[in-house]
Amino acid sequence: MLFIATLIAIIGYAGATWLQWQRLSSPDSGQRNLIRTLGLGAFVMQGYAVYRVLHYPEGIDLGTFPVGSFIAWVVVGILLASSLRQKLDNLFIGAFPMAAITAALAAFGPDTGDHRLYPGGLVAHILLSLLAYSIFTLAALQALLLSRQELSLKHHHTRGLVASLPPLQVMERLLFEMLWCGFVLLSVSLVTGFLFVEDLFAQHLVHKTLLSIVAWLVYAILLAGRAVLGWRSQTAVRWTLGGFLLLMLAFFGSKIVIEMVFNGQPPAP
């Protein structure tokens, strides 16, 4: 069932991505409904697959590939829900392939994680961290679209992708809404980490902790710059992508090193 669910999800995401790409040149409301239906079906199938790769009788697998698939699944879910009230369909072009790739890696890639049970407070910290990362992933995709839109408008290219996007001011507003939401979640996740993680500055956690704090500072400066100095457009894009890169290194850099180099066990002090 895991193989079948993952395969259906990959096919659904691939079909929806191709149709969304076609919509850039010829928008069609009926096609939009089909894209959302395919995306929703793939989302449901990936949800089942995510459950299967995360949950084991001996505990939860928080390895790189299962966590990556979970984050992509959350991103798709938030995007599908948000697209009901906001014009965010073009983000499907980035989110759907990401979900398909991570689903395939989680189902068919090597099992490098460590299955274990976690106390409730630590589970809350982990979920908040993953939700924050998911929101910032959406913000990074939105920032890339915003950058492409601004550059195209400067060169008077108003067809294709640009023609299908909301006005530049709306795109910026959506970006900062995502950033504020992710910032709040990241702030709470850091607080819960200090409360429930036994030693956030242990040898195998210190890089993740420090990079997460630096990323928090980057987003805090960006949001303060927006409020006080009116930062926008390419400045906002650069800070958004910089913070996301730091978070990506924090979330996956240390995990990959521990799982691939130290075979799932943290290095000895």
How would you characterize the overall build of this protein?
This protein has eight helices and three strands, in the order ααββααβαααα. The protein is mostly helical. Helix content is 75%, strand content 3%. Strands 1-2-3 form a three-stranded antiparallel β-sheet. The chain folds into two domains: 1-117; 120-269, no CATH class. The mean pLDDT is 86.
> What Rg do the Cα atoms give?
19 Å
Inertia-based shape? flat
Main sheet characteristics: 3 strands, antiparallel
Overall residue-averaged pLDDT value = 86
Total beta strand runs: 3
- Helix-strand pattern: HHEEHHEHHHH
Question: How many individual domains?
Answer: 2
Q: Could you list the spans in which at least 5 consecutive residues all have pLDDT below 50?
A: none
User: Beta fraction of the residues?
Assistant: under 5%
| Discrete helix count | 8
End-to-end Cα distance, whole Å, is 42 Å
Trace the largest sheet across and list its strands: 1-2-3
Helix content: over 70%
SS-based class: mainly alpha
Name the descriptors.
269 residues; mainly alpha; 2 domains; three-stranded antiparallel beta sheet; 3% strand
Summarize the structure in short.
This protein is mainly α and 269 residues long. The chain has helices at residues 2-23, 29-54, 64-82, 92-108, 120-154, 168-196, 206-229, 233-261; strands spanning 55-56, 59-61, 115-116. The chain contains eight helices and three strands; from the N terminus they run ααββααβαααα.
